[in-house]
Amino acid sequence: MTEAEETRMVRKMDIKIFPILVCLYMLSFLDRVNIGNARLYHFEADLGLKGNEYQLCVSMLFITYVTFELPTNLILKMVQPKRFIPIVSIGWGIVSLCTGFCQNKTQIIAMRLLLGIFEAGYFPAICFYLTFFYRRRELAVRIFYLFAASAVSGSCGGLLAFAIGHMDGIRGMSAWRWLMILEGIPTIVLGVLSYFLLANDPYDAKYLTDREKSFTSIRRTLDGTTFGMEGEKQKIDWQQCREAWKDWKVWSLATAQIGVTVMLYGYSTFLPTIINALGYSGIHTQLMTIPCYATGALVYLAIAKLSDRTGYRGYFAVGGCATACIGYAILLGTPSYGPGAQFAGCVIVAAGLYVAVGIPISWMPNNLPSHFKRAAGQGTSMTLGNCAGIFSSFIYRTQDKPEYRLGHGLTLAFVFCSGCMFLMTSLLLRRENKKRDRGERDYVLVGKTPEEIARLGDYHPEYRYLY
After folding, report:
1. 15 vs 6, 145, 155, 172, CA distance in Å?
2. Quick count: other Cβ atoms within 10 Å of Cβ 431?
3. Do the Cβ atoms of 307 and 140 come closer than 8 Å?
């Protein structure tokens, strides 16, 4: 297949795969963080929330989210993606819609717990799903499409919340109730459509010719995406899972993921509250979130393309962390300079946020070619990372506004530590590649059968890590 034919094939996959996945991820993110917009429309008063009970409600989602994230990632190959994705998306759409009818704290907590169960599997599943179709150096831009969706979701969420804010009082319901209901309905509709639009893998894709289906497998094998996947069974391979849980790369990136996820959820959930504390009205606060998310999306697009072109991951993740740290330093150091300086800090944080969170998500599967090792590693990383969502719910306390020094300071510290972990991981992987170039890992092949060699995965001396 020529380069032009391959380009057309990849474009064809993009057109068939991404519209539905991106729209669902946008709604997933929106349904997860719209509680931040709801807070500006009598949410706490209507439900009788006092003190830090709002933060408690926010954090409930992450309890079930982190509990179910790894198991759902492991069963994806056992449950067809075209069934799994519709089930979870319809589920969280129904939960989001029902949230609009909650009357007290107990009911809202129950809805948040259910939302976590259904949303837990979606993002890990689609990141894993993409590895069935794309090469390693094609993933960063594709992950960008998803994170751009969250940035667009933040922008559209603010704009939508601004519009729905004018529905306050219609049929005797507060605007936040309409917000939950009207954001849940499209999710249900798209979830149903996804069953008919998605293929399980390239061989199930009706839009690919037989020649293209064969070539997707060949090019991913040559690229190293499927190293060690020969003859894998549909049932869970616990040996590969154990290999993932013993692999230092998994724990290094998973630990770093905690810090940047503190930033992601803290920023996304509390940005409206932070901007509102700068003196903007509730409705205009929604509009002021748009420049932040738009900046994050544009910067991430440029970096994702550069990352795929160069093959570097860690260096760009470090740069994203450094940029976000500068933004938080501005937020901490300029409360007396007025809302302009504080808002600039919010924009700079957004410029680094999506790079720091998104690039490592494509980095982990890039270096774990074996199917269930990749599933276990990615699931572990996201599970640990999303544990940070529980913590991030409580660091922006009501009594700390308008400066939120505790929240900004703790987030800066977490992101700085994550940047150091990304740098260390990148340097160690680079050193390992050089050792393999010098033949220092060839001893791994000695005495092994062809079947054992085929299952070495990323431990094979010919495999090269992306760093």
Report:
1. 14, 12, 23, 43
2. 10
3. yes
Note if the bond before 402 is cis, omega within 30 degrees: yes
pTM over 0.85: no
Block residue for tokens 């009706």: 206
Whole-angstrom distance, CA of residue 135 vs CA of residue 222: 9
Which tokens belong to 64? Answer: 């079930």
Exposure letters 334-364 (e unless 16+ CB within 10 A, then b):
bbeeebeebbebbbbbbbbbbbbbbbbbbbb
Q: Using CB atoms within 10 A of its CB, is residue 50 exposed (0-12), middle (13-18) or buried (19+)?
A: exposed
Segment 269-276 mean pLDDT: 80
Q: How far is the C-alpha of 329 from the C-alpha of 352, rounded, in Å?
A: 13
All structural domains of the chain: 17-203+244-459 (1.20.1250.20)
Q: Look up residue 217 and give its two tokens.
A: 């497998």
Which of helix, strand or coil describes residue 367? coil
What are the backbone angles phi and psi of residue 461, rounded to the nearest 5°? Answer: -60, -25
Give per-residue pLDDT as tens, 428-457: 999 999 999 999 999 999 989 988 888 888
DSSP class of residue 444 equals G
Whole-angstrom distance, CA of residue 376 vs CA of residue 373: 5
96, 190 contact by CB (below 8 A): no
Structure tokens at 320: 């994203």
CA-to-CA distance for 326 and 318, rounded, in angstroms?
13
Burial 29-40 (b: 16+ CB within 10 A, else e): bbbbbbbbbbbb
pLDDT at 228: 46
